[in-house]
Amino acid sequence: MKIYLVVITLLFISGCKEPTDKLKKTPLNTESQKEAGLLDPDSADSLYLTDKDIMEIQAKSQLSKKEALIKIPDDRTILKAVVESKKLYKEADDYLLDYTYPYLNETVNPKYKAFNEYMAESYSNVERTVNEILEDKELLCDTLSIKRFRDKRIIDFKLHANERNLVSILLYKENYYSGMLHSTYMFDCLNYNVDKEEFIYFDDFFIAGAEKKVFDLINQTIYDQIHSGEMFYDCWEISDTDFKAYKNNFVINDNAIEFYFDDCIICPSYTGQYSVVIPLIEIMHLIERYQQPLLLASR
User: Is residue 279 situated within a structural domain?
Assistant: First the structure.
């Protein structure tokens, strides 16, 4: 009887230890920890990164996010007789500016003049840009206390146009701030009605009272995509305050309207996710009738 009890006891102890042994054999995913950020330096589980580690992670993150933006299709090749790329490059001790922005050929259409004047005023003003960089850095979500390097801002663009003289442009700003684990991105979206020589903003494009409905539509899309796996689980629905600040940041592209948000507005910086796409069929009823003909012909 005693022998039988001893055997039962040993089997019970062995069964209890098995899950613990399995857990001990599970390797830690230190790479994902590195990319997600630094742990508490006072913690026993702290992951200690050197300056070299941080710079390697920055380079990897910058490359993947930039590649995704570069791959966005646009109409620059089709419209090469109309669209030129203007360059601005300025290097100083504490910052570097490397801008590529669109210029529309006024010899093809004089009505492009208002657009070009706006671009020159907004993106060729170096002093204002430097001040913006300093102001933007105060709002960052990923700042680290590491050795300072030179701040950089790189701008490039994507352009969409259709036969109804609607030009829709995404300008993406890659910001590398010293003390950052990841490069960050900011966006400006411009929609230009060539015939009327004027820019189109949210309140011009959508019917009165549409703001709340578009806000709800964007958040429903975010919710659905998070739960379907199309967006990172770490993303979140946009706040009412942020939507009001970014509601003019949309581009009209083929059969959809795409709203763009800066880093950390709907997703953490490391995810590289910045936009919400709403198919035209889902949002057409909220667009002003007199604006709808602009959407009927796309390249």
Answer: yes
Rounded Cα–Cα distance for residues 203 and 141 (Å): 30
Give the range of the structural domain holding residue 65, as residue numbers without chain letter. 61-295
The answer as to whether 17 is a domain residue is no
Residue bearing the bigger pLDDT, 299 or 72: 72
Instruction: Please tell me the distance from the alpha carbon of residue 66 to that of residue 37, in angstroms, as a whole number.
Output: 20
Q: How many domains does the chain have?
A: 1
**DSSP category for residue 182:** S
The CA distance from 280 to 192, in Å, is: 18
CATH of residue 284's domain is 3.30.565.40
Q: Within 13 Å of residue 182, how many CA atoms lie on the same side as its CB?
A: 22
pLDDT digits (tens, 9 = 90+) for 192-224: 999 999 999 999 999 999 999 999 999 999 999
Does 27 reside within a domain?
Answer: no
What confidence tier does 14 reach under pLDDT thresholds 50, 70, 90? Answer: very low
Q: Is 20 contained in some domain?
A: no
Pairwise CA distance, residues 225 & 217, whole Å: 12
**Predicted TM-score (pTM) of this structure:** 0.75
Sign of CA dihedral 139, 140, 144, 146: negative
Residue whose tokens read 């701030």: 177
Facing residues of 260 across strands?
275
Q: What values do phi and psi take at 260, rounded to 5?
A: -110, 140
Residue 240 CB-density burial (10 A; 0-12 exposed, 13-18 middle, 19+ buried): exposed
